[in-house]
Write a structure and sequence with these properties.
The complex is a heterodimer of chains A (283) and B (253). Chain A has 283 residues and is mainly α. Chain A is built from 13 helices and no strands. Chain A has a single domain (2-277), classed as ABC transporter involved in vitamin B12 uptake, BtuC, CATH 1.10.3470.10. Residues 279-283 of chain A have low confidence and may be disordered. Chain B has two domains: 1-76 and 163-253, P-loop containing nucleotide triphosphate hydrolases (Rossmann fold, 3-Layer(aba) Sandwich); 80-157, no CATH class. Chain B has helices at 46-54, 95-107, 115-127, 143-156, 173-188, 200-206, 223-226, 229-236; strands spanning 8-17, 20-30, 35-39, 61-66, 77-81, 159-165, 192-197, 209-214, 216-221, 241-245, 248-252. Chain B is globular. Classes of the chains: A mainly alpha (283), B alpha/beta (253).
């Protein structure tokens, strides 16, 4: 019996695994809460675009010797602003604007990175994620930004809900709908930045979308969806790190694939809405 | 609204999108406590007119006075229910959540709905006979119940003027009848209702005021006076035929 318990304990006897667990859990909880809005508003493409674009900022910060997270954050926020601005002008379609901007940001990142003689390894850990290498400083930064994002969502929950559900009526009721929509993009950008180190540019969108989508199959209210999504995100982090430890595979990949596995199980077996019960997803 | 003869007063209103006019020189008035229909074919500018009245769309020229005020008193007074195709019925919110949103504009930023807000939402749900559906997900309601939930939201707002965009569309006859009875009750409570619809026969039978719109106002006043053969054929341009029969007007598609 104690041998089984030892198997469960073993990974956490190492400090870097404990750090990884804390960072991954913080990120996946934050991402699931923000991600609830992302999937309800059909913003998954933006959720993929911001991390890619932020890589441009990370690379430039690296070349200049500045803080990589600040660089990535500025690039993500700028991209969110530009996409929001172009989309609201209505000259180019929203997803076209996203497609143009985010690839440009990512390409810029590759261009800058290709000019760096050394340390491209560090840069490319942002592309594929390297949660096992996070420092305590990065864990604290993640905790601070995650707490800020969650606090803002709790504080402005009423406004975010109304604007997401019915922007026309929210505007008629006098809510600053434009600012709230930009605000949500900014929260998404911040979440992106802390998710970079955990899962990397390419996989951030999975943490935003997958746990929240799984939760949506079970709940009828937005707070329920956020809480369950956060729990599923945290579970994916823990299980994913075990798999990474014992299977000797990339932690970012195993966290994301665990979340995907949970979604598939829920999709097939969710009460009343599971695909096996003939659910349509409408009710 | 003391001393105001009209709840709605629209004068010389023109509006549109990207240089294309949707409304040209629109003028009409609506009296208090009146069930008024906004009638016109698809694309006649009904939704645009409602959006201008709500202050969501800037007109090119002209003015809209609501309860005598030209500036939009955005929270309160004016309630609105959107076309049902524009509502996301898959969103994870309960009926109660949606009705409570009617209070959000008055609450101001950050503040949470309190017991008075809840009481108003409960009363609104009772009025539209949806009390037993309060904790259902909004998407689980039938078509008629969905319209009533949106009306409850406008009522929770304590609005005296309700703008309803196509509330009758897509309902079967019994559900239409239920909804019309509800509108009638609200009128008796002193609300003024302005209902966009292309269902001429409902307006002809049950409403006490009609605005016939096709970019311009073709006619407005009592339905019997508005729905003349001449006015209707001008508004609908051969999309329907009209059979005048002594005192009643028969209308067919």
């Amino acid at each position: 019996m104690s041998e089984v318990l030892d198997l469960f304990r073993e990974p956490w006897t190492f400090e870097f695994m404990r750090r990884a667990l804390i960072a991954a859990t913080l990120v996946s909880v934050t991402a699931a809460v923000v991600g609830s809005f992302v999937i309800l508003k059909g913003m998954a493409f933006i959720g993929d675009a911001l991390p890619h674009a932020s890589f441009g900022g990370v690379a430039i910060a690296f070349a200049l010797g500045e803080n990589l997270y600040v660089g990535g954050g500025i690039a993500a926020l700028l991209t969110a602003l530009i996409i929001g601005f172009i989309g609201r002008r209505g000259i180019v379609k929203y997803d076209t604007a996203i497609g143009i901007i985010f690839v440009a940001g990512f390409a810029l990142g590759i261009a800058v990175a290709s000019r760096q003689q050394n340390y491209t390894g560090e840069l490319f850990s942002f592309v594929f994620g390297n949660v096992l290498a996070v420092s305590w400083g990065e864990v604290w930064l993640t905790a601070a930004i995650g707490a800020l994002v969650l606090a803002l969502i709790v504080l402005f929950y009423k406004e975010l809900l109304f604007t997401a559900y019915d922007p026309t009526m929210a505007a008629a009721a006098g809510l600053p709908v434009g600012s709230l929509q930009y605000g949500l993009l900014a929260l998404l950008a911040l979440t992106t930045v802390i998710a970079l180190q955990t899962v990397g540019v390419v996989l951030v969108v999975a943490l935003l979308v997958t746990p929240a989508a799984t939760a949506q199959l079970f709940t009828r209210s937005l707070p329920g969806m956020m809480l369950l999504g956060a729990a599923l995100g945290a579970t994916s982090s823990v299980v994913g790190l075990y798999i990474a430890w014992y299977g000797d595979i990339s932690a970012s990949a195993s966290i994301v694939l665990t979340a995907t596995g949970l979604f598939l199980v829920a999709f097939l077996f969710a009460p009343s809405r599971g695909a096996l019960w003939g659910g349509t997803g409408r009710t | 609204m003391a001393g105001n003869e009209y709840v709605v007063e629209v004068r010389g209103l023109s509006a549109g999108y990207n240089g294309h006019a949707a409304l040209e020189d629109v003028s009409f008035t609506i009296e208090p406590g009146c069930l008024a229909g906004l009638v016109g074919p698809n694309g006649s500018g009904k939704s645009t007119l409602l959006k201008v009245m709500l202050g969501l769309h800037k007109p090119w020229s002209g003015e809209v006075r609501i309860f005598g005020h030209a500036e939009r008193p955005s929270h309160g007074h004016v309630g609105y229910t959107p076309q049902t195709e524009l509502v996301d019925w898959t969103f994870p919110v309960t009926v109660m959540d949606v009705v409570l949103m009617g209070r959000y504009g008055r609450l101001g930023l950050v503040r949470r709905p309190g017991s008075r807000d809840r009481a108003l939402a409960v009363a609104a749900l009772e009025l539209v006979r949806l009390s037993d559906r309060a904790n259902r997900r909004i998407g689980e309601l039938s078509g008629g119940e969905q319209r009533r939930a949106l009306i409850a939201r406008a009522l929770a707002q304590e609005a005296d003027l309700l703008l309803l965009d196509e509330p009758l569309a897509g309902l079967d006859a019994p559900a239409q009848h239920d909804l019309l009875r509800l509108l009638e009750e609200l009128r008796k409570e002193g609300k003024t209702l302005f209902v966009a619809t292309h269902d001429l026969s409902c307006v002809a039978a049950d409403f006490d005021h009609a605005v016939l719109l096709n970019r311009r106002v073709i006619a407005f006043g009592r339905p019997a006076d508005v729905f003349t053969e001449e006015a209707l054929s001008e508004a609908f341009q051969r999309h329907l035929f009209v059979l005048p029969e002594r005192n009643t007007t028969m209308i067919g598609p």
